[in-house]
Design a protein that fits this description.
By secondary structure, this protein is an alpha/beta fold. The chain is built from 10 helices and 20 strands. The strands form 3 sheets. It has a 9-stranded mixed β-sheet with strand order 1-2-3-13-4-14-18-16-17, with helices on both faces.
Length: 447
């Protein structure tokens, strides 16, 4: 397999730099905002009035962990609808507890809480660092916040030696309370974690009041394989889709209104002020309809949403060669086989026949192969922001994703060819003129 195309290599190099610089949703949103701002997108503030101009590009953030970027198209919004792509900024990880200090047998450790459905075994014996957001008071007592990153190995979770656990390779379970507190140093007395943070990141007179910090694997993203056909990294689910979406909306030359939404908290259900089940996207859509539609009647918003489409981008399960039986035999996506349309009859994915067909057309227009995934009928199925957003806005939606292995591990694997492919499809999606969708079927009533 030849993956030495210079455009693909350049794209993956930028992807690796983005993921490495984004150990938390806060860092990811900051880096997406920087990409957008460099490309001419203007920042907006939710607390201020907006005066949107056709042809201009904007972005807005909420809580520093969710971001929406959009192009205010020159076409009639009620006639063309909105092209939307969605992803999420969060990944399963180990969050530091509010009072985390532990002193056990001469080792200083921090208590952690598992965020999301993390695969815990891979967290052992890794070089771990810490990053996130600090909230602190300055010398005048003013509350401020600051993104921080130790950016070096500061902790580790050592495995228990096989000699002390002879059944480890047969039946090893992990207790999230007792087995995974990371070791940070040897100590004779317990340190105050907030004071350690202040010494590292704050000036004299400033005091840490609270924080949202998580451990992350320090190993950087890289291409691997004898022919460099694979891309390995932490947080591929779902920073890969965030970067791909950002590149697509930046590269698009669209005359239609286009939106990229990257929500936090998908891994824990999306129910928050910044999650897909919150009001963030709907509030932006309302403002778009108000500023870009001459008529602000509710019926006009309904017309806009009916002609819109959301492509929810969240990585898909590639078939694992050692566990192929975990897949439905007719739906076994492969790495480097192209983006995957994800289908579930119980609406864990929001895809239907019409939205899937539109995506297949887009892929064909840019010569990108496409695959399908349906989980085995005797296994459970994950979900995405797709069904949540679709239900909240009433917008036609489909779920797609880059195929990957080791989902929810602290290090995941995908194909080197597929990220740029999905970006091409999304760019084509943003650029497609006219109203999306297909004609409604005729309904006849027999008397």
């Amino acid at each position: 397999m030849n993956v030495a195309d210079s455009h693909t290599e350049s794209f993956n190099k930028q992807l690796a730099e983005f993921i490495d610089a984004s150990p938390t949703p806060f860092h990811a949103v900051t880096n997406i905002a920087n990409l957008l701002h460099t490309a001419g997108f203007q920042p907006l503030n939710e607390s201020e009035d907006w005066t949107l101009k056709q042809g201009e590009k904007y972005f807005v953030t909420r809580n520093g962990s969710s971001i929406i970027a959009f192009v205010a198209g020159g076409e009639d919004l009620a006639e063309t609808g909105i092209r939307m792509a969605g992803a999420h900024t969060d990944s399963p990880c180990l969050m530091v507890k509010p009072q985390p200090e532990m002193l056990n047998n001469g080792y200083f450790q921090l208590g952690v809480e598992v965020y999301g459905g993390a695969l815990l075994n891979p967290w052992f014996d890794r070089d771990l660092s810490l990053a996130g957001r600090l909230v602190y008071s300055d010398a005048n007592g003013q509350l401020k916040q600051k993104l921080v990153n130790f950016d070096e190995a500061v902790a580790i979770i050592p495995s228990l030696a096989i000699h002390l656990d002879r059944e480890a390779n047969k039946d090893r379970s992990i207790n999230a309370q007792t087995d995974i507190p990371p070791i940070l140093m040897q100590a004779e007395e317990k340190s105050d974690f907030r004071e350690l943070l202040a010494e590292r990141f704050l000036a004299d007179g400033e005091q840490v009041l609270d924080y949202e910090l998580c451990f992350y694997d320090l190993q950087g993203a890289t291409t691997i394989g004898l022919e460099k056909e694979f891309f390995a990294s932490a947080r591929l689910d779902n920073l890969l889709s965030c970067f791909v979406g950002a590149k697509a909306i930046i590269d698009a030359q669209t005359t239609c209104t286009s939106v990229l939404v990257c929500n936090d908290h998908e891994e824990v259900g999306s129910v928050s002020a910044v999650g897909a089940d919150g009001p963030f996207l709907e509030s932006v859509v309302d403002r778009l309809c108000g500023d870009l539609c001459g008529d602000t009647r509710a019926s006009n918003k309904a017309r806009v949403l009916d002609g819109s489409l959301l492509i929810s981008c969240d990585n898909a399960h590639a078939v694992h060669p050692n566990f192929a039986s975990k897949h439905d035999s007719g739906h076994s996506p492969s790495l480097n086989g192209g983006p995957v349309i994800k289908v579930n009859s119980s609406q864990r994915y929001a895809t239907n026949g019409v939205t899937a067909s539109l995506f297949r057309q887009l892929c064909a227009e840019v010569d990108v192969p496409v695959q399908s995934f349906v989980t085995r009928s005797d296994l459970g199925c994950g979900s995405t922001i797709g069904p949540v957003t679709s239900a909240k806005l009433g917008i036609p939606t489909l779920d797609v994703g880059i195929p990957q292995l080791a989902m929810h591990s602290c290090r995941e694997l995908t194909g080197a060819l597929d990220p740029v492919r999905l970006s091409k499809v999304l760019t084509q999606f943003f650029n497609r003129p006219g109203r999306l969708g297909v004609a409604e079927a005729d309904v006849s009533v027999n008397h």
